[in-house]
């Protein structure tokens, strides 16, 4: 499928997580250890927020990430306090630039790993549910981009978790009506530059891998001379498909049916429950929250 990561914290060079670690995202594009596919070479993308712009920047390319010298240069030059990076393994749609993640609308970025099963069968039904005023902004042909625009339709800007739950509920409803037993498998990330919202869910309860960092303070104590860790700050946070280094207690696996929200130095876990069309759930309460550390 794909591999992705999202970072928030003090501004750091992107190469800190894209290239430097032993099992960096670029290494994962060649040698994924936990992915459904070992190689993720059908394009890549990075999206980041600048100091004086609400609309995030993007660089996307259909070439393999490990073979793009411009990406290495950009990752060395760009410093950002919040960014998303993604390496793609295509499923039902072609390798082209408009199909590379992250997708963008306004100040939002969105990345996805997984698939809507039998997507050609349900594509029309799902596309018809996208708000008319948003439809013109769809650029590519992936199931992932439709997921993003459905979430926007359902109020991603107002209630991110609820919007993602409504998006999943609709996909499962449409899939089941078309005889698809397990319509969706996903890990997703949405960010507006102030928060990271990441969810792990699949219809068959067997989602792709997803982890988050546990303690940059702990890492700093272990590696006091590593400027990349020191620069990130104690409140830095990473959510990612696979750990970047083999270090005990540095990573926590995000459970099935869970959404993680990182904002203002706090990380909260909530139960992720799809909302079927026409059915509303009471607001979820955090199962726990902590200061990012």
Automatic annotation (TrEMBL):
<feature type="region of interest" description="Disordered">
    <location>
        <begin position="272"/>
        <end position="293"/>
    </location>
</feature>
<feature type="domain" description="Glutamine amidotransferase type-2">
    <location>
        <begin position="2"/>
        <end position="293"/>
    </location>
</feature>
<dbReference type="InterPro" id="IPR026869">
    <property type="entry name" value="EgtC-like"/>
</dbReference>
<dbReference type="InterPro" id="IPR017932">
    <property type="entry name" value="GATase_2_dom"/>
</dbReference>
<keyword id="KW-0378">Hydrolase</keyword>
<dbReference type="GO" id="GO:0016787">
    <property type="term" value="F:hydrolase activity"/>
</dbReference>
<dbReference type="InterPro" id="IPR052373">
    <property type="entry name" value="Gamma-glu_amide_hydrolase"/>
</dbReference>
<keyword id="KW-0315">Glutamine amidotransferase</keyword>
<protein>
    <submittedName>
        <fullName>Gamma-glutamyl-hercynylcysteine sulfoxide hydrolase</fullName>
        <ecNumber>3.5.1.118</ecNumber>
    </submittedName>
</protein>
<dbReference type="InterPro" id="IPR029055">
    <property type="entry name" value="Ntn_hydrolases_N"/>
</dbReference>
<dbReference type="Pfam" id="PF13230">
    <property type="entry name" value="GATase_4"/>
</dbReference>
């Amino acid at each position: 499928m794909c591999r992705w990561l999202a970072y928030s914290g003090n501004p750091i060079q992107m190469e800190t997580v894209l290239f430097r670690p032993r099992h960096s995202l670029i290494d994962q594009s060649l040698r994924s250890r936990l992915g459904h596919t070992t190689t993720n070479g059908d394009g890549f993308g990075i999206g980041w927020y600048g100091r004086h712009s609400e609309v995030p920047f993007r660089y996307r390319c259909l070439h393999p990430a490990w073979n793009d010298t411009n990406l290495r240069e950009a990752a060395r030059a760009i410093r950002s306090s919040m960014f998303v990076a993604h390496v793609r393994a295509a499923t039902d749609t072609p390798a082209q630039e408009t199909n590379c993640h992250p997708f963008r609308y306004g100040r939002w970025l969105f990345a996805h790993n997984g698939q809507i099963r039998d997507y050609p069968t349900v594509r029309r039904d799902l596309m018809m549910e996208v708000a008319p005023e948003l439809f013109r902004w769809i650029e590519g042909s992936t199931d992932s981009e439709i997921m993003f625009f459905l979430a926007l339709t359902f109020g991603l800007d107002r209630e991110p978790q609820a919007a993602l739950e409504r998006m999943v509920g609709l996909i499962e409803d449409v899939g089941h009506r078309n005889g698809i037993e397990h319509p969706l498998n996903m890990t997703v990330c949405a960010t507006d530059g102030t928060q990271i919202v990441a969810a792990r869910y699949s219809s068959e309860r067997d989602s792709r891998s997803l982890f988050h960092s546990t303690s940059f303070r702990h890492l700093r104590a272990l590696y006091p001379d590593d400027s990349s860790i020191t620069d990130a700050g104690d409140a830095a946070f990473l959510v990612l498909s696979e750990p970047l280094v083999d270090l005990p207690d540095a990573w926590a696996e995000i459970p099935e049916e869970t959404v993680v929200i990182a904002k203002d130095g706090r990380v909260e876990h909530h139960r992720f429950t799809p909302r079927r069309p026409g059915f509303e759930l009471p607001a979820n309460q955090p199962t726990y929250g902590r200061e990012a550390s």
